[in-house]
Amino acid sequence: MIGHSLHPVAGHFVHEHYVYAPEQETYSYYGPLNHVTFNVGYHVEHHDFMNVPGWRLPALHRIAKRHYDTLVSHRSWTWVLWHFITNPAMGPHARIVRSRAVHDGAVRRSIQVGASDEGARKPIQRT
To answer: Which residues of 90-125 are buried (b: 16+ CB within 10 A; e: fewer)?
Structure first.
């Protein structure tokens, strides 16, 4: 009910993949609800680096702040839902569909970043 209704947290689904700026594939949310949704709002960062765990996405954002701050983002999921309901240009027809070429490029970038980070990873020790 909270994730896919008119509850403000449900705004994450709309903000991620509906068109707000035609030249941008997806959008991030930088509001306080990231603290209770395991940083699901850092959606552009997630698409750029799929192998980075959610708890590290805020640090990734800080590192690449100059890049991410130039993109359209949201500060309120309540506003996102209100805009979705009241704007005639929004609706199921305004959903972004990612092309296969864009998806494959993002996967390659994420794997390259993960591979360069291998030396920094330590194996989990089981007891």
So the answer is: beeeeeeeeeeeeeeebeeebeeeeeeeeeeeeeee
Answer positive or negative: Cα dihedral of 31, 32, 33, 37: positive
Task: Return the closest-CA partner of residue 15 out of 30, 2, 1.
Answer: 30
Phi, psi of 16 (to 5 degrees): -70, -40
Q: What is the pLDDT of residues 12-62, one digit of tens each?
A: 888 887 888 888 888 999 999 999 889 999 999 998 999 999 999 999 999
Residue with tokens 């068109």: 19
Three-class SS state of 5: coil
pTM: 0.71
Q: Collapsing DSSP states into helix, strand and coil, what is residue 97?
A: coil
